[in-house]
Structure formats: C-alpha cells, structure tokens
Fold:
Amino acid sequence: MQNAISLKPLVDIKDVNDKIVLEIRYATENNFTKKNIYKTDICYIHEDVAISLNKVQKHLEKQNLGLKIFDGYRPIWAQQILFDVLPDERYVGNPKKITRHTRGTAIDVTLINLVDETELAMPTEFDSFEKKAHLDFEDLSDEIKQNRKLLQDVMINIGGFELLPNEWWHFDFKNWQNYPVLKIELR
Structure:
C-alpha cells in the first residue's frame, strides 16, 4: 500500500469530496482496450484539480446534479498501453510527446442525477472515437446539447478547466502544460 507522502501532489478525490461518483473505466474491462489496465479504482488527481472539482460538485448539487469521473491521473506506462491499442493522437496522447493525464491535471467526467446516480444523456458513451463525440458536432437532440453545454459551462466557469475538441468528457485544468509529468506508479 502506498502512503500519502509518496503520492504527492496527487490526492484521492474521495478525500476531498466523497459525493463525487467514480467509475474508473481503466480499472475494468469496460473501456476501448477491453482490458483491465489499472489495479486500483481510486481516482488520483493533482490537488489543484481536486479543489476545483469540489467547487464544481458543490455548484451542481444545488441542481440535484453531480459529477461522475471515468479517469484522472494516468501513469505513463498506462498511457503507453492505450496508445499502443489506438495510436491516433486525436484521441490518445502519445506518451513520447505531450500528455495530459500523466500530469494529474486531466479529468474524464460526465454529469449524473444525484437522486438515482443515472448519467445525463450525452452525445456518446465515454471513449467513443467518432465525430459525434467532438464538441462541434451539432446533429444531436436539444436535451443532449443542453447537457453537454451544462457540463462545459460548469467545468470552465466554476472549475477553471479547458476543453479538448474531440472528446466531450475530457477537461484539462488551466495551465496544465505548466505541471510536470508525474512518475507515480499506481499498479
């Protein structure tokens, strides 16, 4: 078991806000690789990101909504596995170049109804590599467009995140490129 000191600057999001729901997809076979990549289903993220996500969650709770996280910090070895399966830099960062999740500053997230924890309708499922997942795709129902916009608005305006044009679920913390790539193993 790793201790908190060895994980710094990462924190477990549940230690910051235990109302945020987790479904860490790479700790299951329910992901595009069809393999269990992580041995932990804990969401570790940079402490700055956790503080911002806590603000977003509290804001959403006023509307009986909340966050569900699919992925946070991703070790470089895991990034390599994903890139080996899908070497398309539009969707998976090349670990030999700039990567976002390996800094603990990227988050894959959706919105849920807090009453029953069902996900709000979004353009696609998580990790869908089709044009429908792109932020500029408009051939969607009004409900889906409103849900996508709500997610974007709270993540940008409340949390201080930036968008990734090809994935509606992916958000980068502001100034993510100023954070170092971390070499923390979470196997």
